[in-house]
Each structure stands twice: as structure tokens, then as C-alpha cells.
């Protein structure tokens, strides 16, 4: 493991006291963020909670917000191409919700949407291959490289293979 002087990101640090950690973070190269101060580029974020608490609405808002480079709960979003994947709900319900969000945020970069009939089993080799194929197919539709994939909704059977 590199010592704190060789670190490129805070993930490279060995265990240390919080004051030393905060001081060392100050001298690290600044990372590009997808969500200002919350989500650095090339990292994973999970929105979790009980059923019917608005997780899907949050992800749909975030999907359009990324295309607009707008704010997300007061944090600036990087304007970029996003892909929203879901197996929840009927197409009319999602269409109506996206119609409202899209008309308010008016993204310059049109988000990509993919409805799948059931949760993707991306914790298996075949499921991971299916997921990669979906990303490849979406990339063909995209005018810009896809920088963010939003998966709605997470389930215990939908885990990333190592």
C-alpha cells in the first residue's frame, strides 16, 4: 500500500487520524465530480431506502439533471450523457413522469432510457455479459460517451461481479 506521500486519491491512504486525513486531502490533485462534493468521476453511489420513498423519482430527476448540468439538491451536476435502466413500472407511468421532469430541466444532452422486463443478474458471468451488451447497445444510440449509468432499482440479486 502506498504511503500518504505517494497517494493519488484518498483511497490510497493508510489508516490515519482524521486531522492528518483532512490535511492530506487538501494537497491531493482535485478530482472531477459528477455531483459536486458528493460523487467523484469513476466512483459508485447508491441511493437506498424503504419502498415507496421516492428513490426512482430521485434517479429520474438525476438522469435529466445530468443532461442539463443543473443542480441536484443544491449540488452542481456535471453536464454529461446518462443512461437510466429500470425494470419498475409500466412505460406510460415512466413516460408521464419523465415528460414532467424533462420539461422542467430541459436537458441539452438527451438522457438514454432502457426498460428491462426483470432485474438484471449482473452478479453472474452471463448476466454481466448481458449488462455489457446493453451498455454497448446504448453507446451506439448515444451522441456522447455515456458517463453515468443509473440502475433503478437495486435488488439483492443485482450485484456487480468482482
Question: TL;DR?
Answer:
This protein has helices at residues 18-27, 55-68, 91-105, 125-141, and strands at 33-35, 39-40, 71-72, 75-76, 81-86, 112-115, 146-152. It is an alpha/beta fold and 162 residues long. It has two domains: 1-30, no CATH class; 32-152, no CATH class.
Q: What do these coordinates show?
A:
This protein has 162 residues and is an alpha/beta fold. It has two domains: 1-30, no CATH class; 32-152, no CATH class. It is built from four helices and seven strands, in the order αββαβββαβαβ. The chain has helices at 18-27, 55-68, 91-105, 125-141, and strands at 33-35, 39-40, 71-72, 75-76, 81-86, 112-115, 146-152. The strands form three sheets. Strands 6-5-7 form a three-stranded parallel beta sheet, sandwiched between helices. A hairpin with a 2-residue loop joins strand 3 and strand 4 (75-76). Helix 2 (55-68) crosses helix 3 (91-105). The longest helix is centred in the C-terminal third of the chain and has 17 residues, at 125-141. The radius of gyration is 18 Å and the shape is globular. Residues 155-162 have low confidence and may be disordered.
